[in-house]
Design a protein that fits this description.
Layout: H1 3-27, H2 32-51, H3 61-72
């Protein structure tokens, strides 16, 4: 898997899972599924950061995001 794709998938999955976690907590349920997806998202982000030489900076994130989206939209 490409490092850029792993980073973007991790950020998107992490964002959605945090929203799901807050939803489960507000309904009085245990956030089991959301906790698992947070771990998956964290693993993807750590993989992307560890496997790219030099890592990423915050200024690069928009370019990386739109580069990944542009590869998959015809």
């Amino acid at each position: 898997m490409d490092q850029d794709l792993a980073l973007i998938l991790g950020l998107v999955i992490g964002g959605f899972s945090i929203v799901g976690m807050f939803s489960a907590l507000s309904d009085g349920r245990g956030p089991r599924a959301s906790a698992i997806t947070v771990l998956i998202a964290g693993g993807l982000i750590v993989y992307a950061l560890a496997s790219k030489p030099g890592g990423y900076s915050m200024a690069q994130l928009p370019d990386v995001f739109f580069g990944v989206v542009a590869r998959f939209i015809p």
